[in-house]
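Second opinion, please. Pick holes in both lines of this record:
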Amino acid sequence: MSFTYPVPENELKRLEALRKYRILDTAPESEYDHITSLAGSLTGCPISYISFVDEQRQWMKSKKGISLCETCRDTSFCTYTILEDEVMVVEDALLHPVFKQSFLVKSEPFIRFYAGAPIRDEEGYALGSVCVVDTEPRKLTDDLKRALKELSSVTMKLIKTRNILDELMAAQSELKVLQGLLPICANCKYIRNDDGKWQQIEKYISEYSEASFTHGICPGCQAELYPGI
């Protein structure tokens, strides 16, 4: 796989981790929007967003003050943020050797200042970043850098919680539980299903529960049917 932009040494594993969390292209969620708003309020920046860096694009899960939903990865500031362990700060993009030619700087949203904290999972894979942007050059204090990094940690916890809930819901949807009254024939012991059809008890229970069967013979039936054994 070839790239026209810098990538982490563990890029393929990083992409696997990103897709494992199934966060890409999901609908807006208020929990992420709260983090985005807080990042903007703390830093005083008019633009803030949470982005995830896919193979060839940067996709925004949450955003404030910007209309873009995604950008090509080769023009993304976050492409470089995920290479860092700490908060990446660009005080004036017009003076930066890499970003000064970016269309994000030369046209809407006219980025001049950028700060992004990488979102890393427990294995160290950088999935994306929590970012703040301004249209004017500025600096970021050490306290605000720490705050931005903390917000990225909270974002990762949200992602993990969301993933666990998705797995639980999927498991619940597959769970089959027998409950209520079962219409069973008093003679042949067939059971009537929801479609009104009668079927063997083994088949019915297999369809409506996770149980499986192993057949044997009880002592009473053995004495009646096979008295010589």
Remarks:
- The chain has a mean pLDDT of 88.
- The helical segments are 11-20, 30-43, 78-81, 103-106, 142-174, 201-208, 219-225.
